[in-house]
Amino acid sequence: MTETDRRFMALALALAQRGLGNVWPNPAVGCVIVQGGRIVGRGFTQPGGRPHAEPVALAQAGATARGATAYVTLEPCAHHGKTPPCAEALVAAGVARVVTALTDPDPRVSGRGHAILRAAGVVVTEGVMAAEAEAQQIGFLSRLRLGRPMLTLKLATSFDGRIATATGESRWITGPEARRRVHGLRACHDAVLVGGGTARADDPLLTVRGLGAVRQPVRIVASRRLDLPRAALAASIPEAPLWLMHGPAAPAEALDWWHNRGARTFEVAESGAGLAPLALLSVLGQAGLTRVFCEGGGQLAASLLAADMVQDMVGFTAGLALGADAQAGVGPLGLTRLADATRFQLVSVQTVGTDLMHRWRRI
Q1: Which CATH class is domain 3-139?
Q2: What sign does the dihedral 20-22-28-33 (CA atoms) show?
Q3: What is the pTM of this model?
Q4: For 305-338, how does the pLDDT look when each residue is reduced to its tens digit (9 = 90+)?
Q5: 52 is in an annotated binding site
Q6: b/e map of 258-267 (b: 16 or more CB within 10 Å)?
Q7: Domain boundaries, the chain
Q8: Is 235 annotated as a binding-site member?
Q9: 147-362: which CATH topology?
Q10: 156 is known to lie in a ligand binding site
C-alpha cells in the first residue's frame, strides 16, 4: 500500500461518509477517479441508494477515466439489479486500475466484482484502509453478517448518570450545542429508536431539525401494546416515516388506528417484560435498516445492553448532579460481577458547548 493509495482512499472514505443514513439498504460507498495524479471524478452513493458511487464519479470523469485509477471504498457490485453492475461500468469506461478497501460480503457480489475487473485486464489492489472502511461500514456489514443493523445507544445525562429528576423533568440537562449535535447524529443513521416509556413521557417528534433540508430517518417506537400518545407522532407521519414495534397481544384497535394514519407496524416476539431485543433488531434488519440510533429510555437501553446488541455508545455528560432519587440513564441490568458487564473502548472525547461528548465502541 502506497501513501498515494492511502491519500486517495481517505478521500473516497470521506465522500462515503456523506451517504450514511441516506442510502439504506445499500452501503454508503465513495469513489475517486485519478488520472496522472489529478482527481478527475468524485462520487458517493446518492440518497435512496442510487445511483451508486462509481457511475457518479465516471460521469464526472468522462473520457478522462480511460487509463485512470479508481479508488472505491467497497468492492464494485457485480449483479444486475435496478442498475447495471458497477464493475462492468468501470471496465466499459476503460479504467486501468481499481483500488478497493473491502470485499463486499453480499453473496451476489463477494469477490465477483473483483473477478470481473481482473478478467477484463484491470489491475486490482485490495485492502487499502480496510480497518477504516470496516468501521465506517459496520451497519451494512452487520446486516449482512448478523441479520440485524448496528445499534448506537445515545445517553444525555447528568454527571452522575441521570436522565431526569425524581419528578421526571428532563428538559434540558444538556445544552443547545449538544442537542444540535444529536440532530446531526440522527441524520447519519437510518432510523431513530425509542421505547414506549419515552414516547409516553415526552410524545417526541424524533425528527432531524435545524439542519436544513435532510432526508428524515425512520422513527421507531418499541411498545408491546401500542399504548402510545397519538399527537405529535401521528401528526408528523407525512414528514417522517413511523414504524411501531409491538408484541403479539397489541390491541386490534390500536393497530388499525395507526395503520389508517400511515404508520407501519411490526409484530415482535416478547422476552420477559418486553420485546425481545434480538428479535426486534432482526425484524429491522429484514426491513432493510443498517444503522439504528437508540435514544432510550432506561428500560430499553438496559434490555439492549443486557442482550449485547449495542455496537456504539455516544454519551453527552452535563456538569450537574441530580442525585440517587433521580431517574437513571440505564435501567436495572441484574449484574452481580464486574466481569459480566459488557466492555466498550473509548473512541473519542470532545467538548460540545458546555457538555462533554464521548464515543465508545464494543470491544
Answers
A1: alpha beta
A2: negative
A3: 0.93
A4: 999 999 999 999 999 999 999 999 999 999 999 9
A5: yes
A6: beeeebebbe
A7: 3-139, 147-362
A8: no
A9: Dihydrofolate Reductase, subunit A (3.40.430)
A10: yes
